[in-house]
Design goal:
18 helices; alpha/beta; 479 residues; 49% helix; two-stranded antiparallel ribbon; 3 domains; Rossmann fold
């Protein structure tokens, strides 16, 4: 194998050699929430025989090709890969190349004279490497920067390294003007050339930050163990992020995850309608047809049953405590409009208002949720959740909204602020509905704790834990 600048084989493989090390990596990928079957694990082992193990990036992409199914899984995979297959040490200079020019192999040429300011020299070196755009040299410089600038005061538990110490010392974001000048050269500012240069600078700065963070994780893993670091370093996948804790960076991916659920539910509803086309047995036609087979009813005939689209009524808590959850469940409701004969949405905090008007075809769900907060009459007293009053107002103002053809869907955490839960009213709505389900974004272990009446609501309606998109998908597929 040719000698490469980034050896991928770990310095201390687990018991069982390379195969055991790969098994630990596959297990970590699976524990991060990425589904990896036995066949994929076998394919990963085959990859080790097909790629150059000294070419770290080739190994990274090869394993990713067989272990991943979606692009959204790549960030978590890359973090785990950097922990299990860390950047190797600089190889020895081959004989006869001792006099090679500095920087020929993409290495840093940093030389610190006595009394010089280390941070300033490293900052100048970073600017040079960012201009060159050599990814391998940048990763090796990140290792040096963490070693020289990222150290914290040793503690009894060992040496600690922090990426923010490196970034504070080098301040790479302040190099943008210098890098732009270097990339543009004598060319004028403005136009497409500057846009391309700015994008290049952003990408290279992001690559350096990622390299520093990866090196800090590697050194921390060497001190505390890979498994322990992996549990805290890997961000949950989008479909595993709790609705109640979703951050701005998670929203776009969550929207892409929730959108296909409506189509999946629609397929299941359509299949049920097709299977339910045959109504009650038509005894007369069946007997008449049996005369041709000696009185044996080989073929049965049924009266046609009128096939109808079900109706859907959504009753959603939009108080601040469940705002993120209601956003994604209302998105599902919006997408289901074309698959139900009628979709009516009702929102409440301490009183109830119909908000169907905000979910017209083509409406943006995020905008609709904001309009509900501004324009809908969902607050009647103090703005704290009051399920009992909300159920009573709904039953009084829209007594015919729920009927034998209606599927009722209640969305909320069931926390009543110690007010009346309105169980009799909810029970009557459930009895009148064709089907009824309650999606609760809180963990099941918290139901009934504090002011939660979820356990009591669960006695009159099917209460389903729905904390993230994965559980929402499970609910949709089991309907």
């Amino acid at each position: 194998m040719p000698a490469a600048a980034s050896a991928a084989v770990p310095p201390a493989p687990e018991p069982g050699g390379l195969a055991g090390h790969l098994d630990g990596f596959v297990r970590a990928v699976r524990e991060a929430g990425i589904p990896v079957g036995i066949s994929q694990a076998v394919d990963a082992a085959e990859i080790l025989t097909a790629v150059d193990l000294l070419d770290r990036e080739q190994l990274r992409h090869g394993l990713a090709a067989v272990l991943l199914q979606r692009a959204a899984q790549r960030p978590a995979y890359d973090v785990l890969f950097d922990l299990w297959w860390p950047l190797g040490d600089r190889p020895d200079v081959p004989p006869g190349e001792e006099d090679a020019e500095p920087g020929e192999a993409g290495e840093s040429t940093l030389d610190v004279p006595d009394g010089a300011d280390l941070a300033e020299l490293m900052r100048a070196e970073l600017a040079r490497l960012l201009l060159d755009g050599d990814d391998e040299a940048l990763r090796r410089f990140a290792r040096l920067a963490v070693d020289q600038l990222g150290r914290a005061t040793p503690s009894p538990s060992g040496q600690s390294f922090f990426s923010y110490r490196v970034m504070r010392a080098l301040s790479p974001d302040t190099l943008v003007a210098q890098l732009l000048a270097g990339l543009l050269g004598d060319g004028g500012r403005g136009g497409l050339a500057e846009q391309v240069a700015r994008q290049t600078v952003r990408e290279r700065l992001a690559a350096f930050r990622a390299a520093v963070e990866a090196e800090v994780r590697r050194r921390t893993a060497a001190e505390r163990g890979r498994d322990r670091v992996a549990r805290h370093a890997v961000r949950p996948l989008a479909d595993q992020v709790d609705f109640l804790r979703a951050q701005a960076a998670d929203l776009a991916e969550l929207r892409r995850t929730v959108a296909p659920l409506a189509r999946r539910l629609a397929v299941r509803l359509s299949a049920r309608r097709r299977m339910g086309r045959e109504g009650r047995l038509d005894f007369r036609r069946t007997v008449r047809a049996s005369l041709g087979t000696g009185g044996v009813p080989v073929v049965t005939h049924h009266r046609p049953r009128k096939v109808h689209k079900p109706e859907l009524v959504v009753l959603c808590d939009v108080s601040g405590s469940v705002a993120g959850f209601s956003h994604f469940t209302l998105m599902l409701t919006q997408a289901l409009r074309e698959h139900f004969s009628g979709v009516r949405a009702f929102a409440f905090v301490d009183t109830t208002d119909e908000v169907t008007r905000f979910f017209r075809p083509g409406a943006d769900v995020a905008d609709a949720v904001q309009r509900i907060g501004r324009e809908a009459a969902v607050v009647g007293f103090d703005g704290h959740s009051d399920y009992g009053t909300a159920f009573e107002v709904f039953a009084d103002r829209w007594p015919t909204a729920v009927g034998p053809k209606t599927s009722l869907l209640v969305l909320g955490d069931g926390r009543t602020n110690y007010r009346q839960p309105g169980l009799p009213v909810l029970g009557d709505l459930v009895r009148r509905a064709r089907t009824a389900h309650w999606l609760n974004p809180e963990p099941r272990r918290l139901w009934g704790s504090g002011d939660s009446a979820a356990d009591r609501y669960g006695e009159v309606v099917d209460m389903v834990e729905c904390r993230n998109a994965a559980q929402l998908a499970d609910f949709v597929t089991t309907l």
